[in-house]
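Q: Sequence in, structure out?
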Amino acid sequence: MDVLTDNFSLYGEGFLGTVELTVYASALALVLGFVMASFRVAPVGSFRVFGTVWVTVLRNTPLTLLFFAVMLGLPRFGLVLPFEVFAVLALGCYTSAFICEALRSGINTVPRGQGEAARSLGMSFSQTLSTVVLPQAFRTVIPPIGSNLIALAKNSAIAGAFSVTELLGTYKTLSELGYDIVWTFVWIAVGYLIITLGISALFHVMEKHWGVAR
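A: Exactly. Output:
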């Protein structure tokens, strides 16, 4: 317990850093995932191509490589931002590809006749998607979206290698102070467990309220 009690503020700072990264990157991933899922099913060919390229590139790019591209590449084009913002961009964009595919799979479960009926009533594509298709698709994609956001929380550990304050990065300071590395990582693991169980509990409540009965 000494590792935790003697360095509670350090652990707390790392824990809050990971929570902030998770919250902001999750919000970005959900927004981009929704947009790209809309592009993937849009009647406009150029939108479908853009959505397909976005998903294909990001899903097949190692997250660490994406971090390097964002952290080191964007400043070369004159975009200089805090490392925390770059980390949110990398995590959010990466996870958005998986959110997109989860949403698209949910959209594909909605019977085609639902969309055709909406269009026969004079609804536009955006109206059909937002008022008819997505509300039904949302019920089926709650579990996979929750799983993707849990993965995002764990992936945020990579940000510590780029001078971003987060939970895993606390081991460097504690190791330099001479604390037992095993117990250092045990308490780090407990912190991640709290975050992931919190996300899991939230999506469990959402699934009970809105999910499809099985």
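The mean pLDDT is 87.
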